[in-house]
Q: What sequence folds into this?
């Protein structure tokens, strides 16, 4: 048996298998990390950063969040070659798809093209 404190109220959780314990801990970490209103940032390629603004975490236990995404190439932004991108409209996404990058390892633009292609 495991006693856990949630929101100031002690709850008794019965842990029957190690898998249950893992899910309880994983759920706690997800709820803490993906709070509504929070903005998370991570480099998804060498020069590409993705910002994720959490709109809703109501389905976090099912592996989904509603978020607004902004993907930008920091090298292009720092040199003024592209305009600062805005957040996309909110959409529901799976947690394992948030940080996936399908472009090249050295980035480029969010649509997968290079700045050179747009200058021609």
A:
């Amino acid at each position: 048996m495991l006693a856990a404190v949630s929101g100031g109220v002690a709850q008794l959780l019965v842990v029957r298998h190690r898998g249950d314990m893992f899910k309880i801990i994983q759920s706690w970490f997800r709820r803490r990390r993906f709070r509504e209103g929070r903005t998370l940032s991570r480099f998804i390629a060498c020069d590409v950063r993705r910002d994720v603004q959490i709109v809703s975490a109501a389905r976090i236990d099912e592996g989904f969040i509603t978020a607004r995404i902004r993907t930008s190439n920091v090298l292009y932004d720092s040199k003024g070659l592209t305009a600062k991108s805005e957040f996309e409209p909110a959409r529901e996404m799976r947690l394992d798809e948030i940080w996936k990058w399908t472009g090249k390892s050295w980035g480029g633009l969010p649509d997968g093209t290079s700045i050179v292609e747009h200058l021609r």
Remarks:
- The CA atoms of residues 77 and 83 lie 7 Å apart.
- Residues 1-33 form one domain.
- The chain has two domains: 1-33, 36-110.
- The radius of gyration is 19 Å.
